[in-house]
């Protein structure tokens, strides 16, 4: 039996799926963070931990990990030599390390051409056209990731301070934010000083909620973000009828706000990124036999 | 002899002026940073160091520091209890601690009503109307300080990445920035990851230079910043003919770009902040006698 392994690893946790050679998932396992940008060795250990948990859950001996073939989708795998460095450290017979965006695209669109925008704390565009996969955006909160939750939250704090100073009009939303900080602008400054992108992102749901209530500040900020996201789509999407999925924590909130030309192409993701990793493992390691097994 | 001391202290250095009771500056002295936000004790030592240097340069015994009256303008003095805490630690007979914006306003406008905008790495508005002095903006790079050098530089790096991805048009300016980073967007990300506000601000002069050459990206970013600064002025300036000065490293670059309604009120700063501190010391500690000595 040639087992396949799919891995979906990020800064919070690592998930593994054990599948048979046809891609049927037998069991999954989970462990801690697999952030290869900050701690390669811990990432390696948690990848192994999640994999062994999946094998154990399926009743398969973990001694067979060494004979399995794996596809891994990991945040930061496309930066510098991170992916290649990890690939050499893994316990599998064969392993391919991709950026997390690649397995997300495969999961969402299957084998079809198209674009996914992953909009969570950040924002990144992944487009497949035949054999070619291209990335755009996603350079991080400080100088990129427009439309992502961190940028939205930061923008909201800025608008709250502009309203406090009378530079811009206040609204029910900026009033609510100011109350959260005890009416004290210095508390906003203090929060912002040490806030992670995720911390800023905690304000994003509030923005969508107030936008749905026609709060003018929320409508303006969300409207600008929708325009930013569509500028990205204008640049990366072919003008044909290829598919579009919005993923990540904010994807489903942006979907209904898109212009008709993009809403028409929007589809729910077919599967999650972990399933996408397993599908890619089938493509790469099970060869032509797969078609037969599926057929 | 009742000596007066003016202090202008910030994150880079601390300057002191020794003056007679009429405000005539006898000598100045300089020392290291006086950042009361990050290190109160070092700030105190450098304030004393600059003061003793001024006394020595004037040929006055430093034993007379203890009988002098001082006005200090220090960044961060208006945050929490910083100013009051320092005031209790100082070696002078009398001491008043103000925010650096107050001595800058006094220096620039003298005793007249009006507004100064200090636009360097950050941006802050200080307005005097009779006895009242109000601050606006200046909440820091992360959520405020629109038009400041750090925000301009960050915006430029964002535009450079948007041009790299084809989301926005490129220009000679974004091409030049990309070349600075070896044509590698990851190098921009790496720079931004650890850049201080001052590091981002190093790109601001380049923006003004390219705007003067009609580079469309530079014109758009500088134009937006001018609008941001004027939104602030609309909010804080009385509609009478009170005066306006633009201070800080970018002040003289923004001046010519203001709308006619503000350019008409613009004037060169009369004096520097250190002289402003001495003037305030005269007002507070020399009383009516000053008028006589000046007359």
TrEMBL record, chains A, B:
Residues 5-236 form the ATPase BadF/BadG/BcrA/BcrD type domain. Keywords: Kinase, Transferase. Gene3D superfamilies: 3.30.420.40. One of its GO terms (molecular function) is kinase activity. This is N-acetylglucosamine kinase.
